[in-house]
Amino acid sequence: MLVIFVCTGNICRSPMAEYLLRSWLERRGVEGISVGSMGTLGLAGEPASRLALQVCRERGVDISAHRSRPLDPAQLGRASVIFTMELVHSELVAACCPEAADRTRLLGAWPQTDERLEHVVPDPMGRQVAYYREVARRIEGHIDRIAPVLVQQQRCQPPST
């Protein structure tokens, strides 16, 4: 199973989500789920923002190895599920990789399909550390909600041949 998180620059929200999910899976010894992230802005090779690094470090998660990646149609096409932070990200994923549109969901709404503005994970870029902490708290809440569902889905997948 491949899970991909998408935000705008791939330097704040999606890397936080990527590494928080990885940490959740590692702490529970879950194998067979790969996690990545990308950005719609097209940035490549940029580190996570300083404040994203800080708030993840406060949670015991090191994201210092992260480097931003633009949307990659080939990898999006292989993803089991793609989680976006905003509705526009879902639209851009669908434009980049139409075959992934049916597997692209707003993180704040999944597994429900009722995607509304209140399910958006706001962009903390340019804000103070307290705002980053609030965004990270929201993302953690979403990870705690979606991770067990992902694990269950992964266990129900037929073995690959």
Question: What does this protein look like?
Answer:
- The protein has helices spanning 13-27, 50-58, 73-78, 87-96, 129-156, and strands at residues 2-7, 34-39, 81-84, 104-106.
- Strand 3, helix 4 and strand 4 (104-106) form a beta-alpha-beta unit.
- The chain is globular.
- 42% of the residues lie in helices and 12% in strands.
- Helix 1 (13-27) crosses helix 5 (129-156).
- A four-stranded parallel β-sheet has the order 2-1-3-4, with helices on both faces.
- It has a single domain, classed as Response regulator (Rossmann fold), CATH 3.40.50.
- With 161 residues, the chain is of the alpha/beta class.
- The chain is built from five helices and four strands; from the N terminus they run βαβααβαβα.
Query: Which strand-content bin applies to the residues?
Result: 5-15%
Question: H/E order of the elements?
Answer: EHEHHEHEH
Instruction: Find the CATH superfamily.
Output: Response regulator
Shape: globular
Question: What is this structure, in a nutshell?
Answer:
The protein is α/β, with parallel strands linked by helices. Helices cover about 40% and strands about 10% of the residues.
What's the structural blueprint in terms of helices and strands?
Elements: E1 2-7, H1 13-27, E2 34-39, H2 50-58, H3 73-78, E3 81-84, H4 87-96, E4 104-106, H5 129-156
Parallel strand pairs: 1-2, 1-3, 3-4
Helix pairs in contact: 1-5, 2-5
Task: Fill in the keyword field for this structure.
161 residues; alpha/beta; Rossmann fold; four-stranded parallel beta sheet; 4 strands; globular
